[in-house]
């Protein structure tokens, strides 16, 4: 049983490291997969913290080493996904242009706050209040890049690009 667990753990590391390149169509799936693997590795670490005798066994030491590698690799992939998102690489070209042009910053400034206009898309605070979704922050500059993009799409669906001078 223990050897099976070790073999499955090693197989997860080996197959997980062949990961795909980050694209606008798969970044969310890669993030979720990395977060799940990180959670699993942390669960295994907690198990061995609560069972020190098992942690000292040969198999336990191998599993701990393997899970540390899983944790390190998936944290690195999660960091790459975050850099991809914050660079705006998931955005279609017109939206990336607007996100750079509206606040006048390159790289994209998701935390832009001039008081009246906020976020990478330069949301007027009233527009943000009218179009943000339940559970989103009350201020645009506090929202994640994906949340800001979803609100921008909602505004675009109603008004087109008329609200953005940079479009």
Describe this structure in words.
α1 packs parallel to α4 and α2 runs antiparallel to α4. About 10% of the residues have low confidence. This protein has about 170 residues and is mostly helical. β1 and β2 form a beta hairpin. It has 2 domains: about 80 residues; about 70 residues, Orthogonal Bundle (Lysozyme), CATH 1.10.530. About 60% of the residues lie in helices and about 0% in strands. Strands 1-2 form a two-stranded antiparallel sheet.
Summary tags:
single chain; 167 residues; mainly alpha; two-stranded antiparallel ribbon; 7 helices; 2 strands
Short description:
This protein is mostly helical. The protein contains 7 helices and 2 strands, in the order αααααββαα. Helix 1 packs parallel to helix 4 (58-86) and helix 2 (27-50) packs antiparallel against helix 4 (58-86).
